Amino acid sequence: MSVSLVLIVIMGVLFACGVYAMLERSLTRVLIGFLLLGNAANLLLLIVMGEPGAASFFGEERETSDPLPQALTLTAIVITFAVSAFLLALIYRSWQLGRADTVEDDLEDVALRARPSDEDEMDVEVEDEDDDATTDFVDSDASPIRLLRNADLAGIRDDAPSDRPLRRRRDPEPEAPDDHEDRDEGPDGGESR
């Protein structure tokens, strides 16, 4: 298998130009860089495929080509098309909102970059008073999980298992029925229906 040196050089130049273009702040240049990277990847798969062979048909005994690089190239083309369509929509929306396709710095990023970076402050360990604690959420008020009960929402049943004791809300006692004649007592003294 002999690979053309010209194809390898073209592939390397496409990869280099694509990476360089993607490092720009302009979304149009990012799109162009992505398209260059997609074409370079397709060229890489073409180089890896080797010499072309015959298509495999039933009953013919010839040297066939490897179908895997062809399938990968087709997949790379589809992915490049989809991401390019997404980037075009992003560029169009950015142009509608700000009449520019450049990505500006976020205010939080600028403030973070302007902050002095003392690596010594980050290396200082904080000593806790309670070394036996196995979690950062020691206090129940700072717990990230809060169990909801029927008192919080009326549609919740309080019969779910939990590791905390149940807090019973004080319901008024149910009133006994006034009609004692309506109930029939069974032979064991209980009510029968």
Can you walk me through this structure?
45% of the residues lie in helices and 2% in strands. The relative contact order is 0.07. The protein is mainly alpha-helical and 193 residues long. The protein contains 5 helices and 2 strands, in the order H-H-H-H-H-E-E. The chain has a two-stranded antiparallel sheet. The protein has helices at residues 5-22, 27-49, 67-98, 107-114, 119-123, and strands spanning 184-185, 191-192. The chain is flat. Strand 1 (184-185) and strand 2 (191-192) form a beta hairpin.
The averaged pLDDT comes out at 76
Q: Gyration radius, to the nearest Å?
A: 36 Å
Strand content range: under 5%
Strand order, sheet with most strands: 1-2
Distance between termini? Answer: 92 Å
Question: What are the main properties of this structure?
Answer:
193 residues; mainly alpha; two-stranded antiparallel sheet
Question: What is the topological layout?
Answer:
Elements lengths: L4 H18 L4 H23 L17 H32 L8 H8 L4 H5 L60 E2 L5 E2 L1
Antiparallel strand pairs: 1-2
Helix pairs in contact: 1-2, 2-3
In short:
This protein has 193 residues and is mainly alpha-helical.
